[in-house]
Amino acid sequence: MARYTYQKELSHPGLNKYRIVKAETAYELDRKVETIKAQWNVQWQRMQERAHKQASEQALRSQADRITKTAEQTHTRIDQFLLSKLSAEPLSFTTIRNYYKPSKPLPTLKLIDLPRKPLRSDARFNPPQSLFTRLFKAKAHAAMCQARYTSAIQQWETECERTKEKNTALQKQHDIAMAEHAAEKQAYLAEIDDFQSDFLSGSPAAMERFVTLQLDTIDFPFPFDHEYSINYDPANLLLVVDMFIPSIEDLPTLKQAVYVKTRNCISEKHFSTSDMRRKCNSFTYQVVLLVFHRLFSSISATLVDSIVLNGRVNTIDKANGQPTTPCILSVRTSRTDFSALNLQQVDPAAWFRHSKGVSAASFAEVTPVPPIINLQTDDKRFVDGYDVASTLSESVNLAAMHWLDFENLIRELFEQEFSQNGGSVRITQASRDGGVDAVAFDPDPIRGGKIVVQAKRYTNVVGVSAVRDLYGTIQHEGAMKGILVTTSTYGKDAYDFIVGKPITLISGAELLHLLERHGHKARIDIVEAKSQYTENSAH
Description:
Elements: E1 6-12, E2 17-23, H1 26-79, H2 81-85, H3 93-98, H4 131-136, H5 138-200, H6 204-216, E3 228-233, E4 238-244, E5 254-260, E6 265-270, H7 273-298, E7 306-312, E8 315-316, E9 323-324, E10 327-334, H8 335-339, H9 348-354, E11 358-359, H10 403-419, E12 424-427, E13 438-442, E14 449-456, H11 464-477, E15 481-486, H12 492-497, E16 503-506, H13 508-517, H14 526-538
Parallel strand pairs: 4-7, 14-15, 15-16
Antiparallel strand pairs: 1-2, 3-4, 5-6, 7-10, 8-9, 10-11, 12-13, 13-14
């Protein structure tokens, strides 16, 4: 029988193992211990690797689940974008007032506590007395204690005064800071009051600011920069919104994230191209309806009766590789028509078609379309006109009228002409330079758009050069059409030039007919006008 004279206890908490190792010699014991430890270490390492792998797999599975859940939530918000936003309160001036945030944190006042008043009973004023002191120096001891207390009281009173002075300074600083805060808030509220007053009075600048703030409250289900161009025509209660909307490239395509065990990685699954086209169309129509809903809900009927929305996208022109911002949709609706909608049940695409919205069949194709109306009220050339038409009579010779009065009459005439079908006209500053005398905006989705108007009070036949100049102006202005009006007639070369071009020529006879259609009578006598010019030149 072997006699084991050496032994050692071994344990491994991780493996939950325990063993007593025995051997006849110390050398043999060491070899056995090292072998067992090596075996256990290999087992422990494998166990850790398995645990690490399982933890890694679980982490990736959890990550895939989180990614999938986020993607599903995002696409649910995309698919139900309109319905999810209908319950939100539109921005109001009350909200804007309550939004005030001070430029600095509100000041806090923390006064310094007054020091504790010394008590005559405190131990430092009543030190222990020896027997000798009690017998022979009791009065002197009492006087010393009283002197100490009196000195402490004086020091306390001095410290109290200093503390009060510091607190007074702190209070003053706090009062100044609070006054500054109150003044800042008051200035903010006054600015908002002025903003609201301007808005209610029909200020285009205030309307542009409010609409911008209103549209900024629309948060998309994915990152997207808001960008708008707002134009307001208070005379016609017309609001035109040029708004950048997400293109198909902006929409997230991720559908699901799946853990792949064989490769220990996450694989992404994306929506098909046809699915994304459908989502792009549906989402865009929903955005359009939501914009109308927010604006009509927050702006009174006395300020806005109809709204035009032009939807633009930031994209790349495949023909030249350059960035471009085409208009891909344009739609106009009135407050009356929109208020009849049940937004909980309406089909946004069907509504868009019913409202005669202009767009390609699919927004994914990024097909440019002409805006129904594209007001540019920030054009510094626009000025207020004055009344000329009411002064007309059969005795007024248009050919002899002052050129400034004639240009203003033409602008006034077309303002009456285009306002009949919901259009508007902007009068430009008269410069007698052959430029634009008026800019008309026709809302008709087929023949409408921006139209430039020029007036020529001529006594001679209008040649092709004036018509050619108008054509250049049309191209420069990005207009759909140009109209040239004269008191005279046009030569054959002028009529030959406009063939196939978006130009309308209105002669003197046609001008008189147009004026009469709007209830104005006048006459054109070229010979009389020439004689007057000759007489004026002679003088």
